[in-house]
Structures are given as structure tokens and as C-alpha cells.
């Protein structure tokens, strides 16, 4: 009776709304365990603030700016904090520290296997079990057994570069390096190139689909879990782009499965990653079955193509803008060439003996890490004090490599500058221990050796064979990041070099 009277009162609803908003406001600003952590006002009240920055594709630059303004802790959502303190990175991501991945990750799950996948698995025990099954195939010696497959894609790509050089045409490295990295993943994980380089186009619209689907997954990921299905239902009929991307994506999934299935029916002596995944399946089934082979190969496309392309773009772009460092790299490569230390398709084992090359690669990934949001983690049982603030169990905290890599306390007063020479300073080993481009701890990148093999082999060959310059040195690249960063407008011209 009382409730009925209350509900029929016309003032009830406006008053209830005002009280709820005031209660939410009071809770978030005063009672929440995150209260007192500084940051943008709206970020403390709603996750739509974060969504807005994802749409603007500048969360990494924005977070860096916020840390300059507010200090080592910044509240980037009602229930999430970005941490810039280098010591906190080691605390949060230490192996066995007990911090676990949050519900940010599952929107990126391939959902192909009942056992899940390594990247988005939230259950640490399941993750450890799976990672143990497959980690050996990602060791550098294992990746190197398939080095010639990387060379296949490289040979195809250099043919195109040579044509551009001969015609004096510029090449947009943003797009081409993505096609190249995608084709290498094809060679290693699917037994053949997808054919982007050969056909010189985004066959099937796969790359375009990744560019639409991934930001969509991240928009969902930064919102509350309960909102995600609703947004999916609303967005699907509204966005023709998304529908088209999902179709391309399904086609890519079907194509990938077909490649894997063909190999199962026709075992091969090819020592590529696909053969090794199939061997794990034969040894570990039913815990690792055919759907897990699909999953790992498919994950490699997502986790390992744009990311690797970004690392190569960053090195090339920054070298072109800083000719003094390019000259040092070229001198090192030329000297090695003259001494007969480099083969035609430069071997990884040869490339890692070039210290300036190593410094360039590291510096490129420092100033432009490929993944540029915080890697969010739950605080473990018992809570944790981070930068003087106590966070109870379950709170979300994370470090963004783009923020960490510019900390002057670690990388020096010139942290803003691209300067490979820094890696020859006495504190280089200390700086190295804070490099976070591949993450850290138990969830560190499993594909790091695949990426490093590609990058180390490609860059010295490029700079040995061509003088590479920006087509328009006054033009800056366009760099956008909604989780994985992407650069466009890296237009370069090649002039043939012959090192005697
Ligand atoms: C330069 C290239 C790459 C960069 C910068 C990179 C970066 C990262 C980072 C930062 C993480 C950890 C993310 C987190 O903690 O939230 C990660 C995880 C992962 N990466 Fe990479 N990645 C690269 C290439 C690759 C490649 C080539 C592959 C596959 C062939 C790959 C597969 C994975 C997988 C499966 C995980 C999840 C690992 C786990 O949780 O056990 N990545 N990567």
C-alpha cells in the first residue's frame, strides 16, 4: 500500500533520480577506495570519459599529460587507476605478485576453443597451464627453425621496394609494413602467405576489418561489462562498417581454419609454427585440440601483425627524421657488409651482432610502444599500497608503456627525444629493465621472439640496400591508438645503394 502510494506520487521519480545521482557522486568522490586519487572529474564518475578518449584515439598522449598534471596516480575511470611510477610497474607485473587481468580483455577473445586463449584468459591457473604447453614453440631457437619462411615474405616485399625505387615512387610504410607483417604471420602460422604483398592489396578486406573490429572491442572493453551485450545489439544494425568488418572477419576465420585443416590432412615437414602447434595438439589432446591450434594461429594475426609493423615504422620514421642516427646505423651496417658478416637475406644471428641496430630498435619501441593503454590488473588479496595509496583487493590498477617510457627518472632528461645513443650510457641496463613494450611478468608477450626476428632481419637489409628518406620531410606521421597504435602517412622514397 505504502509502496503503491509512493510510486503513484509524481514527485517520486525526479526525487529518486536526484538522490541516486547524489548518492553515486558521494560514493565515488568520498567513499570509494579510489576516492582521493586525482584525475579528471568526469573520469571519477563515469566510464564514458574513458570511452570518449578511446574514440579520440589519443588516450596514451592524454594519460601522459594527466600524469604530468596530477602525479604518479591518475584515476582514469570510477574504478581504475593509471600508475606512472616505474617501481610500481615492477610491483604490479612481477611474476607471482598475484595481480590478475581484468574483464577488459575478454572482448578481444577469438572464442574458437572451449579452453580459451592465452591473451584474454583471466584464470591465472588455466593461463599458466596453457602457456606451459606452448611456450617452447615460441623460443628463439624454435622460431629460427622457420627463419626461411620469414625470408620468403621478405624477398617478396623487397621486390616491391625495388620496383618503387626504380620508378622513384613513394611507398606508404604504414600500410605496406602491416601487409608484410601479416604475410609473415601467414607463412609461420598458416603455412603460406596470405598474399597481401604479392597482390599489393588488402585481400578480402581483412586488414580493414581488424582496424574496425579491434577498436570496437576496446570500446566495449572500457565500458561496464553489463553494458556490452546491449551496445552490441544497438551497434550492429546501426553500423554498416561494423557489419562489413564482421563479415570480413568471419571470412578470415574460415580461411584460417581451411589453411590449418589442409595441413592436418596433409602433414608437412615444414618446421613452421603451425607444424609445432599441431605437434602440441597431438601430444596434449584433449587439453589442446584442433580448436586450440585455430586459436593460437588466429591470435598471432591479431597480436602479432599491427604490433610488429608499428615497431618497424617507428624505427624507420624516427631514423628518417634524425639523419645523424641514420648515418650511424648505416655506417655500422656497411662496415659489417664490407667485412663479409652479412648474407643476402640477413640472418637474425648476424643482425643481433650489430649493437647500433639493437639500440635503434629499442629506442623506436621506447618512443612508440605498439600497445598504448594501461594493461589493467586486479589488486590481489590483502590489497596493496601503490605510491602511498592503499587499494583494497579487486581494485583495478595498470601501467601504460607510453607513459612509463617517457619517465625522466629512468630514461633521462632527454626522454622525449628519439636518441639511440642513450642505450650506450652507463645506466642502459637499468633503463632496459623498465622497457615495457612487451609487458612484463607471467603475461609478457609470448610472440616477442617472432616479432624481434622479423624486425632484426628487415631493418638492416632495408638500410643496407636503400637510402630511405621521407617523401616530404616536413610532414609528420599520423598516429592513433585505441589499444594497438597505428601510424599512417609514413611515406618514404628509396634510392638504391651498393656497398662495395
Ligand atoms: C612488436 C611486436 C609485439 C608487441 C609490441 C607485443 C606486445 C605485447 C604485450 C604488451 C603483451 C601483454 C599485454 C598485457 O599484459 O595486457 C603481449 C601479449 C601477447 N602477445 Fe604480443 N606483441 C608483439 C608481437 C606478438 C606476436 C608476433 C605474437 C604472436 C605470434 C604475439 C602474441 C601475444 C600473445 C599470445 C600474448 C598474450 C600472452 C599471455 O598472456 O600469455 N605478440 N604482447
Automatic annotation (TrEMBL):
Transmembrane regions: 6-27
UniProt cofactor(s): heme
Keywords: Heme, Iron, Membrane, Metal-binding, Monooxygenase, Oxidoreductase, Transmembrane, Transmembrane helix
Binding site for heme: 445
Keyword Transmembrane (UniProt): yes
Protein family: Belongs to the cytochrome P450 family.
Protein name as it appears in the record: Cytochrome P450
Organism: Sphaerosporella brunnea
Amino acid at each position: 500500500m505504502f509502496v503503491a502510494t509512493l510510486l503513484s506520487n509524481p514527485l517520486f521519480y525526479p526525487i529518486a533520480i536526484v538522490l541516486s545521482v547524489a548518492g553515486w557522486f558521494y560514493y565515488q568522490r568520498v567513499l570509494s577506495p579510489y576516492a582521493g586519487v586525482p584525475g579528471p572529474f568526469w573520469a571519477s564518475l563515469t566510464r564514458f570519459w574513458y570511452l570518449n578518449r578511446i574514440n579520440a584515439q589519443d588516450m596514451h598522449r592524454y594519460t601522459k599529460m594527466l600524469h604530468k598534471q596530477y602525479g604518479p596516480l591518475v584515476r582514469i575511470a570510477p574504478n581504475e587507476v593509471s600508475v606512472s611510477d616505474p617501481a610500481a610497474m615492477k610491483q604490479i607485473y612481477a611474476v607471482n605478485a598475484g595481480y590478475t587481468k581484468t574483464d577488459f580483455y575478454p572482448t578481444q577473445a577469438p572464442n574458437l576453443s572451449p579452453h580459451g586463449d592465452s591473451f584474454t584468459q583471466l584464470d591465472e591457473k588455466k593461463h599458466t597451464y596453457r602457456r606451459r604447453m606452448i611456450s617452447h614453440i615460441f623460443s628463439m631457437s624454435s622460431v629460427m627453425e622457420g627463419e626461411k619462411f620469414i625470408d620468403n615474405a621478405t624477398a617478396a616485399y623487397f621486390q616491391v621496394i625495388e620496383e618503387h625505387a626504380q620508378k622513384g615512387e613513394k611507398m606508404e610504410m604504414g600500410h605496406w609494413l602491416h601487409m608484410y607483417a601479416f604475410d609473415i604471420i601467414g607463412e609461420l602460422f598458416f603455412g603460406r602467405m596470405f598474399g597481401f604483398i604479392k597482390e599489393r592489396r588488402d585481400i578480402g578486406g581483412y586488414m580493414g576489418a581488424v582496424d574496425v573490429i579491434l577498436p570496437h572491442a576496446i570500446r566495449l572493453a572500457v565500458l561496464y561489462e553489463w553494458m556490452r551485450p546491449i551496445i552490441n545489439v544497438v551497434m550492429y544494425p546501426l553500423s554498416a562498417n561494423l557489419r562489413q568488418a564482421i563479415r570480413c572477419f568471419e571470412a578470415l576465420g574460415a580461411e584460417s581454419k581451411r589453411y590449418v585443416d589442409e595441413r592436418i590432412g596433409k602433414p608437412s615437414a615444414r618446421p613452421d609454427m603451425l607444424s609445432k602447434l599441431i605437434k602440441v595438439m597431438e601430444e596434449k589432446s584433449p587439453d589442446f585440440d584442433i580448436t586450440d591450434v585455430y586459436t593460437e594461429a588466429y591470435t598471432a594475426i591479431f597480436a602479432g601483425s599491427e604490433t610488429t609493423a608499428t615497431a618497424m615504422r617507428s624505427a624507420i620514421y624516427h631514423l628518417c627524421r634524425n639523419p645523424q642516427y641514420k648515418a650511424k646505423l648505416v655506417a655500422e651496417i656497411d662496415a659489417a657488409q664490407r667485412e663479409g658478416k652479412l648474407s643476402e637475406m640477413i640472418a637474425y644471428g648476424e643482425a643481433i651482432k650489430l649493437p647500433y641496430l639493437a639500440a635503434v630498435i629499442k629506442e623506436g619501441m621506447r618512443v612508440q610502444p605498439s600497445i598504448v593503454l594501461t594493461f589493467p590488473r586486479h589488486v590481489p588479496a590483502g590489497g596493496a599500497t601503490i605510491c602511498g595509496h592503499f587499494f583494497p583487493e579487486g581494485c583495478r590498477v595498470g601501467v601504460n608503456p607510453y607513459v612509463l617510457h617517457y619517465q625522466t627518472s629512468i630514461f633521462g632528461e632527454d626522454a622525449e627525444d628519439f636518441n639511440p645513443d642513450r642505450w650506450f650510457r652507463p645506466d642502459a641496463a637499468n633503463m632496459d629493465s623498465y622497457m615495457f613494450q612487451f609487458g612484463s611478468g607471467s603475461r609478457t608477450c609470448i610472440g616477442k621472439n617472432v616479432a624481434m626476428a622479423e624486425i632484426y632481419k628487415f631493418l638492416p637489409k632495408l638500410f643496407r640496400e636503400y637510402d630511405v628518406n621521407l617523401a616530404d620531410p616536413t610532414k609528420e606521421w599520423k598516429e592513433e591508438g585505441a589499444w594497438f597504435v597505428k601510424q599512417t602517412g609514413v611515406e618514404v622514397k628509396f634510392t638504391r645503394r651498393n656497398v662495395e
